[in-house]
Write a structure and sequence with these properties.
By secondary structure, the chain is of the alpha+beta class. It folds into two domains: about 5-115, Phosphorylase Kinase, domain 1; about 130-320, Aminoglycoside 3'-phosphotransferase, Chain: A, domain 2. It has nine helices and nine strands. The strands form three sheets. The chain has a five-stranded antiparallel β-sheet with strand order 1-2-3-5-4. A two-stranded antiparallel ribbon has the order 6-9. This is Ecdysteroid kinase. GO terms for molecular function: kinase activity.
Length: about 325
């Protein structure tokens, strides 16, 4: 690959790279994300996401299989497709970093991107510091995003979005301890996949992938698992990343009402919002049960497998056993 420093200087018209800061390593040692501070040119700093496919993949939980490697490989290719062909349709209500340049080679990829910190999106609340306003701000982002891409076909993206999608997780399915849920996994997946109203889902919309400039202004990153799906998959997964069992119970109605209010504001008026709301409201618990299914096979005992998750999963199991 062309020297990274050369790529940066040519694209940004900077005269020099002043310093480099490591932001994070990529999952399973597939490269890293770095911040480059620049002198002169168009930007004070840029982010470089450099993916290098390892000869022997390593996974922190021991999931280094050929299927796991192929899933990660595709995820980075999907992210490139997203930035090339879809990202331009987002707006100020669903802010994302601008992608300045993409370089793809056989064994590595490079994305040269806007530095959200430099653009003012430097606040990263965690589960200890996140508040209700933060959560509603992200749900607004998701609502506008889902409205924008309602009915969009995922050409070059995942046919079904989300990193825990059943078809891509046979290893975790095989390891499940909850046999009743395991046996219902396909029915749950089918309900979500066959929903009348489909959009593009972010696919990894956890709190850690949102960057705030203040409590009511946010941008999202990491589009490796974007694809077609019911918007409730993002909503359920996001809420699960923010709140514990008691908070989920307390705020469920308030958060879902907020999301659907924002969806109504931003949805194309030719789409019947009430039909969307009716269908998706009924699928919220299915989306939660679907993620719970993944956790049961991936990391039994995970903190998200609490009573609230169990209750929703059981409600779904009761429904699918009747049909």
């Amino acid at each position: 690959m062309q020297q990274i420093q050369e790529v940066i200087l040519n694209n940004t018209e900077a005269s020099a790279i002043l310093s480099v800061q490591s932001v994070q390593s990529l999952w399973s040692e597939y490269g890293g994300i770095k911040r480059y501070f620049l002198e002169g040119g168009k930007y004070k700093s840029v982010i470089v996401k450099h993916i290098q496919f390892p000869a022997k993949p390593h996974h922190p939980k021991g999931w280094s299989t050929p299927l796991s490697h192929q899933r990660k490989l595709k995820s980075y290719q999907v992210e490139c497709q997203w930035y090339r062909h879809y990202s331009q349709y987002t707006n100020e209500h669903s802010k994302i970093p601008q992608c300045h340049q993409i370089i793809e080679e056989e064994s590595e990829l490079l994305l040269l991107m806007e530095d959200l910190d430099a653009s003012g999106y430097s606040i990263r609340p965690d589960i200890e510091s996140v508040n209700l306003i933060h959560v509603k701000t992200c749900l607004s982002w998701l609502a506008h995003f889902h409205a924008t891409f309602m009915g969009t076909e995922p050409e070059g993206l995942w046919p079904t979005g989300s990193y825990w999608h059943l078809d891509t997780r046979p290893d975790e399915l095989a390891r499940m301890e909850n046999i009743t849920l395991k046996n219902a996994a396909k029915q749950i997946d089918d309900r979500l996949k066959n929903a009348l109203f489909q959009t593009l889902v972010h696919g990894d919309a956890k709190l850690a992938n949102f960057c705030f400039s203040n409590e009511v202004s946010v941008a999202a990153v990491d589009f490796q698992y974007i694809g077609k799906g019911c918007g409730m998959k993002d909503v359920a997964y996001f809420i699960s990343s923010c709140f514990d069992e008691a908070q989920c119970e307390t705020y469920e109605d308030e958060l879902l009402n907020h999301y659907f209010n924002q969806l109504q504001i931003s949805l194309d008026k030719n789409i019947d919002f009430q039909l969307v709301k009716k269908e998706w409201m009924g699928l919220y618990k299915y989306a939660w049960a679907d993620f719970y299914r993944f956790l049961d096979g991936w990391n039994p005992g995970h903190w998200k497998m609490h009573g609230y998750s169990e209750r929703l999963a059981q409600e779904v199991l009761d429904e699918v056993s009747i049909k």
